[in-house]
Amino acid sequence: MKKWLLIGGIILVMGITASPFLIWQLKKPTDLNMLVIDKTVPDQTFREHQGLMWMLNQAKVRKDGKPYEISKDYGGFYPKGDKTYSIKSLPKTNSADMIYITDTYGVYKEDLGVKAKRGDRSGVWRHDF
Hints:
By secondary structure, the protein is α/β, with parallel strands linked by helices. It has helices at 2-26, 50-58; strands spanning 30-31, 34-38, 61-63, 66-67, 75-79, 85-88, 98-103, 107-108, 124-126. The strands form three sheets. It has a four-stranded mixed sheet with strand order 6-5-2-7, with no helix packed on it. The chain has a three-stranded mixed sheet with strand order 1-3-4. It has a two-stranded antiparallel ribbon with strand order 8-9.
């Protein structure tokens, strides 16, 4: 009898412990068309909006049925890793359900490998997109 009480207690504790994960597995994804604006992405770590994308994906928030991608689902400055870049312009019309602005001050010259003279702090290089 004690053996079955112990086994039942272990199963109950395991069920309670696993319930948040099981509830998360059963949760249906939610679609949310979010416009993320980040003009300050000096490298490919995407540190300014990395936490937001992680939170959206953990909460099963989707964009057009797909998880948000940290390196693609934002508007602004796109570094390519070899001191080149591209700029994804913001849409002309806004059909977003929500707008999230991370940083808008731009990218510093030194962030792209262009050294400032005499060690002075470099100015903002691109902020007008």
